[in-house]
Amino acid sequence: MRSVRSIPVFENIPILVRAALNVPVENDHVMNDYRLRRALSTIRFLTERGAKVILISHIGNKGTETLAPVARALGTLIRGVSFCPETIGAGAREAIRAMAPGDILVLENLRRNAGEQANDPAFSRELAALADVFVEDSFDTCHRAHASIIGVPKFLPAYAGLLLEEETAALRGALHPAHPALAVIGGAKFKTKEAVLTALLASYDHVFVGGALANDFLKAAGKEVGKSLVSDIDPARVKELLANPKLIVPVDSLVIRAEAFDTLNARAEARIVPVEHVARDEIILDHGPATSALVAALARKMKNILWNGPLGNYENGFIDATDALARAIAASGAHSVVGGGDTVASIENLGLLPQFSFVSTGGGAMLDFLAKGTLVGIEALELYTSA
Questions:
Q1: Residue ranges of the chain with pLDDT lower than 50?
Q2: Residues 261/239, Cβ–Cβ less than 8 Å
Q3: Cα–Cα distance between 154 and 135 in angstroms, integer?
Q4: Three-state SS string across 195-235, please?
Q5: Distance (Å, rounded) from C-alpha 266 to C-alpha 269?
Q6: Which pLDDT score is estimated for 279?
Q7: CB count, 10 Å around CB of 316?
Q8: Could you give the CA distance from residue 260 to residue 268 in angstroms, rounded to a whole number?
Q9: Which domains, from first to last, does the chain contain?
Q10: For 308-360, where are the alpha helices, taking DSSP H only?
Q11: pTM recorded for the entire structure
């Protein structure tokens, strides 16, 4: 990949930057600005050299959300930010013509145009027509074959941003960890985790499977998981991974009766049980203290730790095992590489961010990179800038 540092001319040049601006917004306010803060290094690099910085990004999954509150939040972190309620077209072009060197313009949500997710060449051309140079700096979406990721580099000189360079360097290092090394993969959806688990079992000494993903392994091992979330998959695929002696699963669980899950006193009804004692009418919502102690004891012996994904039903407040793991890794002294939205939220809420070696802006992108060693967005940069 060509680096943003090798762009030949910056002064007064309109530069289109695919940035990671997909942040949580509630009631028109940004709730967590971590990705915005990570985007600043490339933005500042360009504005300090007199470029006109045009930021494009998606937000949310519906295509109806707006980047307007994100632009306002970004404006509190760096000067010169304005917002355009259009992504392409006459309004966007006029807003870009009005920019002065060093200005920053945030265009509206890419996914409001169906051409973004469809990787429509016509939409890619219209985006490319807005600038003279393209910079890819949205690692979190580099696993998506969308117009702003793999389409635009066909039509503009394309470069990797500083954040993208940092992400790829850190994760390439994580593919070859110093030993002993521990990987922790949480979250759900076995289908999206199978490839990365296979890769990590080949290069790490221990791989702990947590979160709802662990339910698939407990079920494959013949344990009762009650009404817990499980994947609709061939159990033989899970059993093959389970047979690997490096793989570790939870030993105890926090459970409640399924009928009590949506009640106000759900947590009061929760109980800790060994994984062998989960009842048929119960839901596993988190791991218990014995599992947390087991993983913490391992972490203290490691030189490298990789972590992606929460260990419990984090969004509904079952955060104890996730927070316990965050504290254990922070205290371990190991080189740590972590990622995933809820993972980062836990670390930030606990005030532990400075104690981690590298915190990725990607969740799914991080997993895909670890499984494949590259991403389609990175391949596009390499393919169209090889000359």
A1: 386-387
A2: no
A3: 12
A4: HHHHHHHHHCCEEEECHHHHHHHHHHCCCCCCCCCCCCCCH
A5: 5
A6: 95
A7: 13
A8: 10
A9: 4-168+375-384 (3.40.50.1260), 175-356 (3.40.50.1260)
A10: 320-332, 341-349
A11: 0.93
